[in-house]
Each structure stands twice: as structure tokens, then as C-alpha cells.
Amino acid sequence: MTVSPSLASAAKSSRVLVIGATGFIGKFVAEASLDSGLPTYVLLRPGPSRPSKSDTIKSLKDKGAIILHGVISDKPLMEKLLREHEIEIVISAVGGATILDQITLVDAISAVGTIKRFLPSEFGHDVDRTDPVEPGLTMYLEKRKVRRWIEKCGVPYTYICCNSIASWPYHDNKHPSEVVPPLDQFQIYGDGTVKAYFVDGPDIGKFTMMTVDDIRSLNKNVHFRPPSNLYDINGLASLWEKKIGRTLPRVTITENDLLTAAAENRIPESIVASFTHDIFIKGCQTNFPIEGPNDIDVATLYPEESFRTLDECFNDFLVKLGGKLHTDKIATMNTAAAVEVEPRAITATCA
């Protein structure tokens, strides 16, 4: 099935509102929206922003983004903004404590009645098919609640299930975009043989924007499962060893270790530990088939489009290391000395 020319033509002028555009996933989505040539609006919370977010805002503005101010928990304001700016596509990439605020946003979208597609904050696993231990489960229960409200209100939607970010999957509080893979030792989860799908951030943005005006993705779960990026932890470690030219020792992180870290209920570290357990112990990304009327693989929609490989993504980490990585000195190096990158707390938007 193909999108009709009339639909594709109409979509070219669709106005897009991205919420959470200064976050890790939201930035990629907003950039992809701008790159696609769609009029792109970005909703920002009132008040000062952190320097890193200010840089992102400036970058988006320079590319043509139109900045709006408000919060999604303010229904009258959101109705006003959606109507005044004739928004047709709404994409949310909020995380943490604001997940349930999307219910108010859905009410505003429903009241306006002209939104062609809503993409709620998913950008991870299919939350209806996985059950991580707490505290990760609470986040998924909240996302399920948002899904059910969208469906009850009859708002047209697409759920983006893009699985894991293309990076080393640390189970502690380090953002994958900020920290290179290990240079001292690998932490292997369980026996290291449970596989997961890894997707580069710009690809998440690119494929997300391709779905927003595609009738085939309407009211569907769209899964990102690139075969070239299906790795277990052992394979991931071997790939990185080839990049750095050195074999690193391996330390086993058992299932009980991850469950203990999750049970400590330190946020967000324990959420990340619970997701790590779900992915690399329980196999939540690969233990179900893509089938049924509500599911589709993004590669089926766009077979001519390729994913950036994990091998290529790991080359980016070598660039981050720059001239500090030397084979004859690497035995004395550790992650902190090798890369002067400030760790950043994650919001667990994407697994």
C-alpha cells in the first residue's frame, strides 16, 4: 500500500508541534521535522533553561523552529496554541514526572478536533508487551494509561517502539549519548547472550517523521527492528574491542545484581537497572513477533531506507576519544581519564 499523492502533498504543509524537544530523543525528532521541511513548532516551559538546553533551543531556532511557551498540563492554553497555530501533528517526547500530563494534552487535542496525528512519549519498548520490575514498571503503567486515554478519546495516533539507543547499555545513571563504551572492563548482564535492537538517534528522528503522515502507520505500533543492529552484550563487547584494538576483562552482572539495584529505588538509576534487567535478562525486545492488525515493522513501511549500523555508531565514540586513545597507553587509561564528558542524568524516555 502506498500513500496517495494527494495525502503526501497535503502532508508537506502539516504543522508539527514537538514537545520535549530539548531532551535526548526530542531533539532528534525536532531536527528531523525541520529537515523534512515541515513548519515545526517547539513547546518550551516558561522560565530560564540550563546552558545545554539553551544551546539546543538556539540550534533549533537557527534551523527554523518556531518557539512557543507553555506546559501541557494547561488545557486551555494548549487548546489556544493548537488552534492559533493550526497544528496538525503533535509529537511528545516528555519523560519522568510529566508522562501523565499527556492526558490533559490529549483532552486538548480532542477538544480542538483538527489534529491528524498524535505521537505520545513512547520511544522505547512496546509498553503493552513488557513488564519490567519496579520502579520501571510504574513508568510503563503510566504510558499504558496514556495509550488507553488516547484510544478512548478517539485521537489518531502512532506509537513509536524504537527499542534501545545505539550505544553501550550502562545500567547506572549515565546517559548513552554522553559516555563512551568502557575502556577498563565490560559489565556483562547474565550470560550475555540475550539480544536487543540498537537504533541511532538521528534514525529515530528520521523514521518517526516518515510515519506521521503515512496512512499505514495510523493507529499502529511501529517497531524499529533493524537486523543489522541486533546484538547481545557479548557481541557488543567484541565490536568495541575491535574498535579500540584491545581485549578487556569481563565482569558478570547477575540478574540478582540488577534486581537489587532496581529495588534500591534510586531515581533514575533504579529505573535504568529495571529496564536493563527487562532487556538483557528477560529479552523483552525479542520475545514476541511483529504481527497482528495493530503492529508493523518500520522496515516494512520503508524498505528503501537503511539504518545506520552500530558499527558506524561506535566509530563516533572513537571520534569522541580523539587523540587520547593510543594503543600503547590504553592499559593505563580508564573512562574518566579517556573522555572528559560530563555524565548526565537520564529521564528513561528511551530504553
TrEMBL record:
Keywords: NADP, Oxidoreductase. GO terms for biological process: lignan biosynthetic process. It comes from the Eukaryota. InterPro entries: NAD(P)-bd_dom_sf (IPR036291), NmrA-like (IPR008030), NmrA-type/Isoflavone_red_sf (IPR050608), PCBER-like (IPR045312). Residues 13-312 form the NmrA-like domain. Gene3D superfamilies: NAD(P)-binding Rossmann-like Domain, UDP-galactose 4-epimerase, domain 1. Pfam families: NmrA. GO terms for molecular function: oxidoreductase activity. PANTHER family: LEUCANTHOCYANIDIN REDUCTASE, PINORESINOL REDUCTASE-RELATED. This is NmrA-like domain-containing protein.
